[in-house]
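Entry 14. Structure prediction run on the chain below.
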Amino acid sequence: MFDNFATVQFAFSVIVVSLLVLFTNRRYNTSISDIPGPFFASIGDFWHLYHVFKGHTEAATVELHEKHGYFVRVGHEEVSVSHPDGPRAILGAPLRKSKFYRLFALPHVGYNNLMSERDPKRHQKMFRNLASGYAMSHVIKSEPIIDSTINLLEERLDQASHDGTPVELDKWLSYTAFDILGEVTFSRAFGFLKEGIDIRNTVANTYFHAFYIVTMTYLQRVHAVLLGNPIIRWLDITPSDHAFETCVQTVELRKKSGDTRLDMIGQWMLARKNSPEQMTEREILNAATANLGAGGETISATVQALIYYCLKNPQHLTRLRDEIDSADSRGELSSPITYAEAQNLPFLQACIKEALRYHTGVGFGLPREVPPEGLTIGNRNFKHGTILSVNPWAIHRSTACFGPSASVFDPTRWLDPTRAAAMEKYLIPFGLGYNSCPGRNLASLEVNKLSATLVRDWDIRLVEQDREWAFQSLFIAVPWGWPVRMQRRRKNGVKAGST
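Output returned:
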C-alpha cells in the first residue's frame, strides 16, 4: 500500500515539476516575454479559452489595449496588435495563417476552403478559381431574386407585427440572410422565410457549431479524438444540419443535371469546365458550404447593428429616414430599394460604415505567423515563429485610428471626405489582404438593400428603450434579445394609409 502511495506521489511530483518547467519556459524563454498581458495568457491558451466561455473576447481585447498600448501578449506565443500600421503589415501582407484556422474546414478537414487554407499561395490559387462567383459584376445579377426574398420578409413582418406583438427582428434577418445565400449560391432558398420557422433549429445551432469551432481551435488535440477523428469521418457520422444537407444535395443534383444557371455554383462549374486541371469538384462543394458557415450571420449582424444603434440614437435614425424619404418623394427609389439607389444616399452609406466599424461581425483576433526574416511594426521587431493577431474591434475602437470618439456610435464621422479617406484604411470589417472575406460584395449588396428598405418601409421601436441587446463573440458576434414593435410606413412604395 505504501509503495503504491509513494509511486502516485512521485508521479504527481513529476507532473507538477514538468508543468512548472513548461510554463516557466513559455513565459520567460521567448522574445516576447517583455510584452505586457495577462499572466495566464503567457503560459498557454487559458486566456483565450476563458473569454470564449465568457463570450466577449472582443471587449477583453479592447480593454487590454487601452491598458497596455499597441502590443499585448494574449498567448504564450501570440501578440495582439492595435498599432495603426498593424492591419496592413500583418493582414495586408502574404503571411501564413496560424493553426487557429484549421478548424474552419467545415464540417471537417476534408472540406478545406478559403478560410481554413493557411498557405498564402494555395489560398490565392483557390480564390482565382472561385473569383468569378464572388465578383460584383456577377453578384449584382442576383438582385431580382434578392428583391423577391426581401418582399417575402416584409410579408412575414406584416404577419408578425399586425396586432402590435413584439417582433424578434434578429431572427427574421437571420432567416433572410440564409435564404438569400441559398438563392445566390445555388438558386435554392433554404425555406426559413417560406416556413416562417428555424427549420430543424439550423440557425439556432450555428451557436453550438461556432462554440465548438472556437473552443477546439485552442484544444486541437481534443478535437482530434472528437469530430476530427478519422474514424468519425470514415463512418460519415459528422453532425450536420438542414442548411448543410441542402447545400450538399443541391450541388450533387446540379452536377448530375448539367443545369447551366449562372449562380455561384454555375459560375464555378463553368470555370472548372474551362480549366479542369485548375479546379476540383470538391473545391466547388467546399466553397458552397463555407458560404453558409461565414455568410448568413455576419450579414444579419451588420443589418441588426445599423438598425439597433440608430434606434438607440434617435437623432441618427431621424436623419437617415429624412434622407430616404426625401429621395423617395422625388421618385428616386424603387421597392425594394436597389443597390444603385442606396449608393446615392450618403447618410445611409455613413450609417453602414459606422455599423461595420462599431459592431464588426468578427470579434476575434486574426492571427498570422511572423516570417523567417522577422517583422517590424512601429518600433518593435518580432522574430520568426511569433504569432501576431489583429482584432478588428481593437482597431475600430482605437483613438489613434478613429479619433477621440472611437467608442461612440457616430455615423457623421464619415461625412467629411478628408476625414473619411483617412479612416478608410483602418476600416477592416471584412479583413484585409489575401484572406479578406470573399463574400464582401454580396454582403454589401444585402446590407444596403435591407437597411434602406426596412428604414423606409417600417416604423421600428424598441420594446424597452433602456435595455441593452445581448451577443457573444464566437468568432462572429451575432446579437439577439432586442424585441421591437413594427408598424408599416410604406407598402409597395406607397405610404401606409394612402389610397
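The two ends are 94 Å apart (CA to CA).
Filed with the rest of this week's runs.
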